[in-house]
Each structure stands twice: as structure tokens, then as C-alpha cells.
Amino acid sequence: MTADPSIFEVARAVQDGSQACLPTVEAILATIAAREPEIRAFLFHDPEQVLREAQAIDDRARAGDVVGPLAGVTVALKDNLTTEETPTTCASKILEHWVPPYSATVVERLRAAGAIVIGKTNLDEFAMGSSTENSAFQVTKNPLDTTRVPGGSSGGSAAAVAARFAHVALGSDTGGSIRQPAALCGVVGFKPTYGLVSRYGLIAFASSLDQIGPFGRSVEDAGALFEIIAGHDSRDSTSLDRPAPQVLDRKDRGVEGLRVGVVADLVNFCSPDVVRRCREAADGLARAGALVEEVSVPATTLGLSAYYIIAPAEASSNLARFDGVRFGLREEGADMTETYVKTRSAGFGAEVKRRIMLGTYALSAGYYEAYYGKAQRVRTLIIRAFDEIYRRFDLLLCPTSPTTAFRTGDKANDPMAMYLNDVCTIPSSLAGHPAMSVPFGEGDDGLPVGVQLLGPALSDPLLFQAAFVLQEMANEHKRLSAARLDRTDRGGDV
């Protein structure tokens, strides 16, 4: 079992001339050509442009120019990140043909580092969903089992990394939209502390919750991408005025003496096989020297209810700009009011309409305090509960998703069942705290399980420190399982 080279190893080979960028990119494009018709991870993909960029990097490297720390690394971008001269649709008919006049800050930073954008990935429309079935254009399949969903809303990005269509990817996480698909596709997904990564150029769903973060096939790759995209941006008023945290130097520090709480309240929502993997992760951290204890944080169980008032309320405001006047789809009516109605009726899908109506109702006169005001008080309660528990523990641990990847269509017509997929990820989003999903074994169906590390604001490096340990434990388990299988195949002892 050969491990993938890290993205820094890929870039180093391009920088020192030991490996040209073009052959690596050609191999990735061949993989995409073979599997993309089945997986459908991309909404926009231009192989000719990708090849031109790869050749340009090789030419610069041969000339001795500085080509950047991510030279030749391919990155897939969730299609709610603006890209100049390339369509950005949010997987919505209302933006089907829109080409932004500017690129998101994270895209600028990736390109400056030498990365190659391999394509724009599918998502639940305007990032509203947990399965990538709500896209206006196509349904993305899980590369590990194409009868299953890849999770959402960043399902296209998670699928692209899992299918080896890209070395790494970016997604956005509002209530779990990086971590949940990472868990279902068996990759690493990280939601940073709110404000550490610029939201400039991220088309808003819920502005107080949205955060951009990385997907990788390893903790190292997710960390390397995070270090490139993080850091202050004056164009984002919510950006923290601090440099990008360094996380890769935490790889060998271990977890000796770290206090880790296993959140029993969230474990109770999960299937038995997912719970077993989480318990095994907790036991592994304890063997590595962490002080592990089961804890109760009852306020976390209120997160789902509060989120599905706050997020739709913010969405109803943010999506008011899509009116057929300034950009995107326009359906002509007899007057401006009819134009608004016809444009938004034709342009938005069912889930987006549902959330806009929920949010508008929650913000309306007579109901604002009963719904939105109360949800914000619950949010404060959750933040205070986390503040209290983090006085006793450095990090928390729980499953990422209640189950492994479910079958396409199983929950598409049951909004509540779909919303429950985010029950473990929403609390840290409401608090603005960092959280990471790390693959840790498989469920009873043979599909990956992700365990989630939670930490207080700005504990991002500590999350990586523990994630490196979990990754090594998971890899060791794979090595032992492969060795046992090999002995069995050769007729030896099991």
C-alpha cells in the first residue's frame, strides 16, 4: 500500500526539476476523463486551459523562476467561490451563465502559490443541503460507492479529492458542509476558526456562519492548503487581523497530556457502527497519552433547531440580491414586481425557496423575537456551554456524521431526515470554532467513518496536532488489516 505524495512533495519535485508538472496533470486529466461521466463532480472543467497552465509552470521552472510552494498542485474549487473569467453558478439556474469580474481571495492566494485550478465543483444549490442532490444541474455520486451520496453541500469537492481528480480542494462550511462530505468520502475536511480565512469572493449563504476550508487525502495536505489560504484580508470585514496559523509543525508533537472530552450528547444521535469507530478513536488517543473522558454538553443538542432558523434568516437577506436586475437570470414580467417573482420562481430550486421562506417568516414583524431572537439566544447558550467545557478540556471528540454515506434518493424528499445529517457539525459552526473530520475506519457497510475534533476559537494548530495522531492510528489499522488479509490469501495464520 503506497501512500500518495504530499502536495509539498509534488511541488518540490516540480521546483527542483525532478518531475515535470505536465505529465502529472495529464495523468489526473485521464482519471477525470475515465470517471467523471459517472461521478459528475465538476460543473466547469477546461482540460485545455489546465494543460496550458501546467506547461507554463514547467517553462518557468526550467527557466529558474520561482514557481511557488504549490507549483503543479491541482485544486478543485467549490462553485460558490468566484473565479474571474470562469463561470460561478452556485449550482443554481439563477446564476447559470454568470462570469464574475473578480476572483475570491483564496483563489488569488492559490494561484500566487503556483496551484492549478482543475475545475469548479458541484454543490447543493447555494450550499443548502447535505447530499449534493439539490444542484440545479446534476447529482454527484460518491466515488467509493456510486449508489451513495458524497455528502454536502461541498460534495463535488470531497468527491473530486476522493476520486483523485485533484490533489486537494476547497469547500465552504456553514453548518458542516466541509466536514460531513469529507467523512462520507473518506477524506480530511477542516473548518477553520471563523475569520481566519477570508470570505471575500465566497457567495454568501449565511454570513455569520460561512467559512472556507480545505479537503485533502491527508492531514498534511489539508494543513498545507490551510496555511496558504489563511491570513488577514482587508477586503473582508470579518477577517481576523492576524497572520495565518502554522499547523504543519505540530505533526510530531503527539497528544501526551491533552485533555479530550468525548461528547456523549452527540454520540447518541449516531448509528452503532459509527459510535464504535468514535470509541476506538478515543481509546487510541488515550493510549497515546491523552486524558480522555466522556462528557455531557446538553446545549449542543439545541444546535440543529437554532441553526435552521438563523441560517435561513441570513439566507433570505443574502439571496435578495438575486432579482433579475443586476446579474444572472432575468425573466421578463409586465412590471418590476412580476419580473422579480418570475425570475426568482424560475431561478431558485425547491430547497432554496424553502429556506428563503422559512427565513423571511422568522424575520417578519410579529415573529422576529419568537423565532430569530430566541434562536440567537440559544446560539449564545451554546457558545457559553462550549466556553465552560473548554475550561476542563483542550479538545472535544465526536462522530462527524451520524451514519456512513446513505443511498442517493433515500432522504431527498424528507427535509428533516436530511437536516439531521448535520447534528454533530452544527454546534461548532454556531460558535465560530474550528473543527476537523478525520477518516477513522469503516462502518458495517464497508464505507468510511469520519471522527470529528472540536476546539475553541483559534485552537486550529491543536486540532491538527491531534489529527496527525488519529491519522497515524487509522493508517496503522489499515496496514495491520492488509497484512492479515495477505496472510489469509497465502494460506497462513490469521
Rg measurement, Å: 22 Å
Distance between the termini: 19 Å
Q: CATH top level of the largest domain?
A: Alpha Beta
Q: Any guess at the CATH architecture of the largest domain?
A: Alpha-Beta Complex
Tally of DSSP helical segments = 16
Structural write-up:
This protein is of the alpha/beta class and 494 residues long. The chain has two domains: 7-302 and 378-489, Amidase signature (AS) enzymes; 303-377, no CATH class. The chain has helices spanning 7-16, 21-39, 47-62, 105-112, 155-162, 179-185, 219-229, 264-267, 272-287, 303-318, 336-347, 350-363, 369-389, 415-419, 426-431, 460-489; strands at 42-44, 74-78, 116-121, 168-173, 188-191, 211-216, 259-263, 291-295, 395-399, 435-442, 448-454. Strands 1-3-2-4-6-5-10-11-9-7-8 form an eleven-stranded mixed sheet, with helices on both faces. Helix 4 links the parallel strand 2 (74-78) and strand 3. The protein is globular and about 75 Å long. The two termini are 19 Å apart.
Properties at a glance:
alpha/beta; Amidase signature (AS) enzymes; 16 helices
